[in-house]
Structure formats: structure tokens, C-alpha cells
Amino acid sequence: MSAQLPRRALAWSLFALLLGIGPHAARLPAWVLLVVAVATVWRHRVHQGAWSFPGRAVRALLVLMSFLAVGLQWRALNGLEPTVALLVVAAALKALEMRSARDFLVIVFVAYFLIACQLLFEQEIPYAAYALFATFGVTAAMVARHQGDPGGGWLRPFAIATRMLLQAVPIMLLLFVVFPRIAPLWSIPQNTGGARTGPSETMSPGDVARLSASSELAFRATFDAAVPPARERYWRGLVLSEFDGRQWRQGALSRMESELALQGATRPALRPTSHVPGGAVSAYEIILEANNQPWLYVLGYPLAFDEGLRLGSDYRLMNSRPVVQRLRYRVNADLAARLEPELGALRRQSELQLPPGLNPRAAALAGEWRAAAGSDERYIERVLRWFHEEDFVYTMSPPLLGRDSVDDFLFGARRGFCEHYASAFTVLLRAAGIPARVVVGYQGGERNPWQGYLLVHQFDAHAWAEAWLPQRGWVRFDPTAAVAPERIESGVGDALGAEFLAGSPLAIERYRNVRLLGWLRMRWDTLTYHWARAVLNYDAERQTALLSRLLGAVSPARVVALLLGCGALALLLVAASLFGMRPVRRRDAATAAYLRACARLAAAGIERTRGEAPLAFAARVERERPDLARCFSALSRDYARLAYGAPDAAELQHLTRALRSAVRRFRPRPQVGLAIGAGVRRRFHTRGTP
Amino acid sequence: MRQPAQLRRLGHSVRALREAWIARRIPAAREVRLDRGNIFIFPTGSGFAFLALLLALLLTGINYESNLVFALAFLLAGLFVVGVLHTYANLAQLRVTGAGAEAVFAGAEAGFVVQLADAGRRVHDGLLVGWEGNEGQGAHVPHDGAQTLTLFLRASHRGWLRAPRVRIASAYPLGLLRAWTSLDLAQRCVVYPRPATAGDAPLASRGGDEGPLTHDPGSEDFAGFRDYRSGDPLRHVVWKTLARGQRLQTLDQRAFADRSRWLRWSDTEWGTDVESRLALLCRWVLELQAQGSEYGLELPGCTLQPASGDAQCEQALTALALFGGQEPPA
Questions:
Q1: How far is Cα A617 from Cα A622, in angstroms, rounded to an integer?
Q2: Cross-chain residue pair A116–B73, CB shorter than 8 Å
Q3: Residues 6+ positions from A10 with CB-CB distance below 8 Å
């Protein structure tokens, strides 16, 4: 282990290290990169003989300072990011003092581990492809280090590493499919540093508009059966019941439920509120991108959903912890269920809450209209018609609103985004004594034409309202639809026109009307979708499904049999490529016949040495076994003429036939006496005479 | 830290068992083709470290529930498994031939020539060839090619020097696994006695050891005397000069006309042991060979008729080397 390193191993180890660090560079603080650069340059100068290795004191100081710096930077050493930083710094310092084979090994292993860490941060196809490439490079470094022959250039280690890794792929696939997906063994510091995306727990004017400036993906949804039409696709996320005049937030009960869910309570605090089945059951699967928020998005009333998820009393679905990596969940939902047909007094009171003394004009208008309308339904209809008929504008850049934000909006600016309309609408309903609340989530989604799944982006974020009506329960109303129907029918892009994604000119979604780009984008997304479903979200459930499809029934014995069977097959193929089972050089009939004769001679005691020319061998046979000479010499002459001469077609045919029949009759025996040889000779003679 | 004696004994017996097992498994042969029967393979220290890395990756994959980390861990696991075949293949189908060694004098190093040739149409890279238990030297056999190495071994005693097992190992291509074999190539070489540092060959004689001298050592003009050196035969001491009270002198045989001489066992000093007598004879043979003289050798049970030349020298030295019951060269 303490063996000296070949000189070229240094370059390879630095290459491996840089491959490992590569994608982390953007995440690492500048000083870490500086340490790497200094160490690399220093070691290179040592390699050239210009500088000398750092002394023990310098090394100790460097290590101490690096650890301190990491500790100060993150205030912890056990998170994912400080771990990566520590590994990078440690490997760079190791490279600096690298002398022995052990140092080389440490660097290579750290490089492998850094690749793995990168996969914890980024899981998209390009990153995975990079990780694969980096694995090839690091493996090539290992091969180069153990190569005794420096010839063959730097490509040879790459070629060998690539070949070996490709041969390892079947084993990887097999293990990937079969290895049991068990729950985490211990709790680990989650990578919570990620930005929270999507709607937040509160909603103020401008919040949803800000979301709409992002073309990031929020989630993908796959329906087992028909995809509901766009105007029905209201993905509920949060229900906001408390209003302070400016900001909407969750009601006290919902907040408590969220807390309990995050604390890991196994049972809901309250029984999910009742519903009346509507009969429009739809099953779908959602792959939610990491958003660092604990709530999930669902369509309709969730009848059944994955274990570990929780249903709140306002019919929202919650995860037991913030979604820090892409989460897949399945929901069976009733899209037509009537929610909470009976509203309790306490609840009714909280859904009627309004900040006292604010928005007097809205309150007055509501009182007047409600009295004139005669029923809640007709009142709501009138409000929506008002939104539709008056000069309300749907825009991403509304003016600022004052203290009475709803009054300012309804009777002043009249320019707003969906949160303005939802908020104003809900206030108008509450002021008229109708329980109402704001719902935040996503609306719509884009269909992938090849796979039929829906892509929901951040710009699909939306806010709408729910009003409680007797017998009907909570009914969805979308005032935005009254103002800008195209927002609901064909998406925010069409509704906003030039305003859409104005801040990000490079977002490919902006140009979704360019046919080729759209095609490319959807093709790429299809790939990403399959990647997410089949690879990233391959979990215990999918494993069981796949294995039972492959094996009939999942039992340990069958799984082991699959593992051993396929593993042995994979290794057999590798062995075949390694050991001689190369395609046999095709020989023509004449050569095959001649070699048969030689094999018989070998059995009789005269072996043709490798590379011995047929005529030279015939001469030797003549010397050693005069009894065989005659027929073998004739046969050899024929063969030599066939193999090295230039016989014409007729001669070729004739000679080949003669050779083959001569070989058929050529049965030399081990030398016992001349009698046998004579016998052979006689047989040849008799054949020769007509 | 001192090992307890019992532990050491256990270690010895384990090693002996292992050696016996290998001897049974890979019998001696001049030429060996490496294959399943004689290649062993085992992870190196790096290999075990790599397995630990795999475990760490696996735990990371489990705890972060990351399928891509799983994939990386499994890819590297596959690499390790495939590496077994590649490491084996790097050694397999290598033809190892022991070409023996030239005879040497005791105390010198015998150079055993080992040829490695490719018999499987592939490159054999990163080979380490050496005596069992010693550091090896690097070797590389190209596709369809061969490499010849000389392994040196100190010859301490005259007689046959049997070469120990040759160890051929390779951790190529990954360094995680080491394939090795331990071959007895049935190599041996003759070790001549170490020539004595002093003692002149006997004078030329015609048959008996008491033949007359050609010169009168008494005459004053006779220059064939020199001071006595230890190891000179007593027979050549010039007693007359001693009687005159001069220093002890012996006849210098170089002063005599050279004809065929006999180097006899009986001419060597009595009282010294067998080895020093052989050493003396060895010195004489070399001396006469250097002069180009004709000489014969007479040992108990073995007589070489007088002759000259390299063949005579080799025969004589071999006879000396194998004196005392060692079988003649095959």
C-alpha cells in the first residue's frame, strides 16, 4: 500500500478530483475553490520540481483552517453541504501532499463519493449523465495508475474503464431492480437549504403574480383514465380562511393540523369532514417537484391516497415533512363530491371573519346587493357578472393598494391578478353573510401530446374562492374566470400575452407557440417524465409491482434465483468477450480439410508446428514417416496450390473436391509397422486407377 | 510487540500447510500455462477499502432514499465483480517458462531466466514477477509477444541450487483485486565451490605425485622460489632454504614447463575440511584454465582425463560442485 506512485498517476488523480468537484463548484463558497486551485497548482509545481512539498506545520495549519472555515460558514459540520465542502477541501489537501499509493486511493474514493453527493443535489438527466461520465473518468484514473505499460496513451485507460463499466451495467440494473428499498436507517440532516417554491402559507396581493414569473415545473400528473378538461383542473393546495385586510392565511384549525402532521402524529386531530359522494372518481398519480413545503396538490376530494399522507379538515392533503426531494403520490379522488354538507357553527363563524372597520364600501355594496338578490346563488351570480361586465383587467403588474385593499381594488384600480380577484370576491361574499374562503394552488396544466400526462408549471399558480351553500356544501367559484375566461380555458400564457414570462426571455415555455421548440420541449419532457417515474421514483411499491410481473409472485427464493440467474448470465457474457470466444476466423473448405488431415497426423504422432508451411511440413512428414509420405505429400501439394496459387474456377473446384476426398481417406495410424502404411498406399492407388 | 511463541508456531504451521497445499495444487513443471487451476484471486487492501466505500454509498442511498446513489453504488459493485474476471484474464493464458540459470560460484547471485509469453492473444499488463516472499519486478507482455526476465538468487553453498517458487501477481486493471500464482518452474543451477583465495596448483607431473623436479632448487640462479603462503602444499616447501635459516619458501610452479598436470584430491592439505579442499581445487582449475594449460582432475570416485578448454573447465568445476554424493546434472 505504501508503494511509490508512477509519475503519471498524479495528473490522473487531479483529473479525477476535478471531475468529482465539477458540478459542486457552483454551490461551494469561493474560498473552497481557491483552496482547490492553490493545492492543484502547488502540487503541479512540485511535480515539475520547481517547488517542494509543504512542511508538516503548513499542512496541519491548512487542515485546521479549512475545518474552522467550514464550521464558520455553515455553523455545522454534519449537513450535506458542509460535508461536501469538507470532502473537497480534504481531497485537495490530500492531493497537495500526495506521494503514496494510499494517497491516490483516498483521492479517487473521495471523487467517487463527491459524484454520489452531486446526485443528492441534482437528479435530472444531464446531471446523471455527467455523473456517469465522471465515473468513467475516475475509473480510468484507477486503471492508468495500475498500468505497467505507459504506452497506449491516455485513451487506453479510458477505453478499458469504459469497457469494464459497460460490462458492469447489467449487474447494476439487476441490483437496482432487486435491491430492497428500505426505509432510512437513521434520520439524516435533510437538505433544507433549498428555496421554497410554489404558493406559500400566506397570500398577499402580488404573491401569485410573482410565482407566475417562473417557468419552473411544479408537478406532473398522470391520470389513469381520461384527463379532465382544463376548466375543471383546479389543483387545491392551501385553504386560507383568515384575512387581516391585506394578507390571507390558514385558519387556526388548519394551522394546528399542519403542525400535528409535521410532528408525525399518526392520526388526524379531527375526523376528515364528511362529504357526499359525487360518483366522478378519478385515479391519478402526481410527481411533485421538491418545493420544501409540506402540503400537496390534489384535484377533487381524495378518497384514498398513499400511506403517510394526511387529509386535513379542509380537504387538503399534507405530507409528514417538507417535500425536499421529488415526491410521487397516488390519489383516488371524487371530482364531484359535495364537501362538508353540514357546516358547524364554529366553523361557519370562522369562514365569515372579516377585519373590522376595513373596506366599508365593499361591505355596503355586499349588503345592498344581497338584500336585492334574495338568494346566495343569485347574489354570487351578480357579483361574477359585475366582474365580467365592468372594466376589470387581468394583469401581472397591478398598482399598489392602500389600507382598504379590497375597496381600492374594486372601486379604484380594477387591475389585478388572480389573488386580487379571489380576495375581493371572498370579502364580498363574507360581507353578505356567505361563508367563503380563498383556495391557493394551480390551475390548468399543459398536456404532453405523446404521453398524455399533465405538466403543471409555477406560472400555473392560481387563487380562487370557495363558498359554502346550504345542501351543496363548498362550491368553487373563480372570479378570475369571469374577468379573463381564456386564463382558465387555455392557460395563463394566452391570458397575459406579452406579459407572460417577460422577465425570463430564455424560458423555452415563452416560445411554446414555435412548433419545433414546442416539439423538442415536449419530447425532452417525456424523457424526463419517464426518468422520474421509472428511475428516480422507483420505490418499494413499484419494485413489488415489477417483480411480481417478472416472477409471478415475489418470494425470497425467486428473487435470489433471478439475481443469480441473470447475474451469472451477465458474467458469462463478459467472460465470453474476455476469453477466446471471439468469432472464429472463417476458413474455406480446403483449409478446413487440410487442418483435419493435420489433426489426424498429430494424433498419429507428427505435429505441425505453428506457422510451418504446408510443403515444409510435408517434407518433414516424408522424412519421419515415409509410409505416410506419398498420400500426404499429394494432399499438401493440392492444398498449397489452392491456398497460395491462383487456380481458375474449374481447377479450384476440381482440386477442392480431390483434396476433400483425399483427406476423408487419410487415416494415419501411430507408427507400428510398414504394413499399415502400405495399406494406406494401396487404398490410394486403387482409388486413383479407373 | 512480541508474539507469543505459540502464536508464532501456529503461524509457521499455517504457512507450512499453505505451502504444502500449493505444492500439491501446482506441481513443478518447466513450462506452465496459467489458467483456472493455478491462478488465485483475492481483494487487495484497496479492494476492501473499495467495498467499504460501496457500503457507505449504499447507506447514503438508503438514508437519502436516492435511487441515483443506489445506481452509482451498484455500478461500482458491478465494476468490482467484472474486475474479478478482468484481473483473472490479465494473468490467464500466460505461458511461463523457466529457462534455468548459468552456473555460478558460491557467494554470487544466480540469475534464473523466466520467460513470460502471451498464449491468449491479449496484453498482460502490470505484472509483478519475483521469488515467493520477495518484492517482484514489473513486467509487461504485449499481445502475442513475450518478455524475458532474470530473477536473481544468492547462491550460498556449492552444489545444486534449487530455485524457489516464482510468484507472478497482478492487480491490473483496477488495483482492487490481485490475481497471483506461485509456480515451481523446476529450475536449478550448479553452484561451484567458492575458489580458495590462496594456494598454488601442484607442479606438472608425469603420473605420480613424486615426480622429479626439472630444476634444482638448490642452485643459486634458480628463480622459482617464492615466499610460503598458507595453503601451499607442504610437498612444495623448499626445505633446503629453511635449513639454511632463510624464510620458509615454496616452489613456484609457474617456473616449470607446463605439461599435463593432475589436480588431485590427495594433493590438497590434510587436516582441513572437505569444503576448503574443494575450494583449493577450484582455485587451481581456474588458474590453469586461465593459463590455458592441460589438466586432469582426480577426486575420490571421479576422474577427469587431462584436457584443456572451456568444456574441461566446466566439467571439472561441476564435478567439484557436486562432489560428495550430489547427483550429476540431468
A1: 9
A2: yes
A3: A43, A47, A98
Q: Is residue A574 part of a domain?
A: no
Of B65, B82, B171, the CB nearest to A167: B82
Distance between CA A528 and CA A533 in Å, rounded?
9
Of A160, A536, A571, the CB nearest to B67: A536
What is the C-alpha separation between A416 and A400, in angstroms, rounded? 10
Domain contains A77: yes
Q: Using one digit for the tens of pLDDT, what is the confidence trace for A197-250?
A: 778 888 888 888 888 888 888 999 999 888 898 888 999 999 999 998 888 999
CB A136: neighbour CB atoms within 10 A?
A: 17
DSSP state, residue B216: -
For residue B77, the chain A residues in CB contact (below 8 A) are: 168, 171-172, 175
- Three-state SS for B271-292 is CCCHHHHHHHHHHHHHHHHHHC
Pairing of strands B104-105, B146-154: unpaired
- Of A638, A641, A637, A618, give the one whose Cα is nearest residue A628: A618
Residues 6+ apart with CB under 8 A from A509: A215, A457, A459, A493, A501, A521
Q: How far apart are CA B162 and CA B185, in angstroms?
A: 10
Which is catalytic among the residues A478, A525, A627, A638? A478
Mind listing the pLDDT tens digit for each residue in A335-368? Answer: 888 888 888 888 888 899 999 888 899 999 999 9
Q: Which of A24, A103, A407, A418 is catalytic?
A: A418
Distance CA B38, CA A71 (A): 54
Percentage of the residues of chain B whose pLDDT score is greater than 70 = 83
Using CA atoms, how far apart are residues B125 and A159, in angstroms rounded to an integer?
Answer: 15
Domain edge (last residue) among A101, A129, A146: A146
Rounded-to-integer distance, Cα A290 and Cα A324, Å:
5
Q: Which cell goes with A520?
A: 423538442
Angle between helices B67-91 and A155-178 (to 10 degrees): 130
Residue type, B313: C
pTM: 0.72
Listed residue (A635, A686, A640) closest to A662, CA to CA:
A635
pLDDT at B68: 93
ipTM above 0.95, yes or no: no
Phi, psi at B127, each rounded to 5°: -85, 150
Q: Bridge partners of A457?
A: A217
Q: Which of A99-113, A192-206, A491-505, B199-213 has the lowest mean pLDDT?
A: B199-213
pLDDT tens-place string over residues A380-395: 999 999 999 988 988 8
**On the CB side of A342, how many CA atoms lie within 13 Å of its CA?**
4
Residue type at A425 in one-letter notation:
F
User: Of A423, A420, A418, nearest to A436 (Cα)?
Assistant: A423
Question: Where exactly are the structural domains of chain B?
Answer: 26-191, 225-321
Each residue of B173-230: pLDDT tens digit? 898 999 999 999 888 899 999 988 877 776 654 444 444 444 444 444 444 667 777 7
Residue type, A111: A
* Residue A40 within a domain: yes
**Residue after which a domain boundary falls, among A146, A163, A191:** A146
Neighbours of A578 (CB within 10 A): 21
Please state, in angstroms and rounded to a whole number, the distance separating the CA atoms of residues B123 and A156: 12
Is the CB of residue A564 less than 8 Å away from at least one CB of chain B? no
Q: Which of A71, A63, A74, A16 is nearest to A35 (CA)?
A: A63
In a domain, A205, yes or no: no
Q: Do A164 and B125 touch (CB under 8 A)?
A: no
A77 has a chain B CB within 8 A of its CB: no
d(CA A260, CA A497): 43
Q: Determine the residue type at A295.
A: W
Eight-state DSSP code of residue A513:
T
Number of domains in chain A: 2
Range of A77's domain? 8-146
